[in-house]
Amino acid sequence: MENPDLVQVYYPHNLIPAITALRWLREENGDPPDGAATVVVRTQRADPARKERLYETVRILAQAYPWLSVWAPTDDELKRYFSAITPVPVRAGRLRSRFGPRYFDRIFYPHNVAGDFTAQSLFSAFPDAKRICYGDSLGIVYSPSGFEAMNYDTGGLYESLRNPWTTAKNFLLRLARMAMAPRAGKNFEPHQYALLIPAQLGGDTLGATLPTIPDKEMAHKTIRAFQMRVPDYMRKVDEALNCAGERAYLFPMANFAEALCMSQEGEIELYRRILMEYVPVGSTIILKPHPGAEPSKTERLARSLAQKYDIRLFDAEGSLVPMELADRLARECEVLSVAYTSVSLPYLYGTKIKHLLDDRLIDEFVNRAKRKWVRTGNDFYLFAIDNMEKWDGESVFYPPK
To answer: Are 125 and 96 in contact (CB under 8 A)?
Structure first.
């Protein structure tokens, strides 16, 4: 390894699979464990103040490894290097001018299907770098066509006639993605997958390829290193549990509204309804927001529940720290989930999860255009709860073969 590695992330929680994959491959390949690496963080859909707090959280966690540096582009740098209206080849040229044409040996990235085309811009800028996909969350991969089918479904004739506006909007969004994507059909497939929990959603992405599966103990080592960088967060986790009543429920929230799956009011009502249905009155509920969620949503939910429950909240900084670092909460609370923590917590800590999102609630609360996307993910979460303990840790986890 002659040059640094590049690690692309969107949120602080991406650092867990990314750094685990990087350290695991360095160990497997006999590379220097302390070789330089640069983290590029670009967060989507966040106001300036919250975006800066997200960036600062990434910087704090990255300090666990002295060989890691972080580039969090300023607003001016985002316009120059990652503007949505700038074609990918132009972005690539500007990135080369910033770093140099052969600056990185490997690029670790979560996926190459997002409409911001951040990964493709980096691939175009550094075409000689080895592309290593560490997956969304802890190892989800998508085919571009499968991702579009889930998120921008144009449906058949019946669905088009029934919902012409949704069909037209999704068709236009597909055209916009085609216009911004790299030319000549380039999608820059990975040279290697390094996935903690290999899962394919929307298409046979892996084919006959068996991905590299980093050891779970390496993930635990990465988490312990990050925990050392956030002592205030870990102390508040202890305080929340020590002050809780006999029954404490942990509820890691999703970012449905921010992902345009439903309105903020709808997401609050969804959570309020399922918590009031499943949690006995008088119990303690610890609300852990998604790092990409709007803080006011959590505060409004807490106020709506405060008369019947003992509500505990993370502060603004603590809400941005990955849920997976709060191992004591995962082990000692009854965990209620609607999203990916139904996979990550059982994998890391053997947590017993009660997953509260079902098809009935999806049909009621999720926008029609996003139902296929949410339902596909939800089917995976339910499968994971039932099958995590039986997985051999060496094969593709989902879908089962």
So the answer is: yes
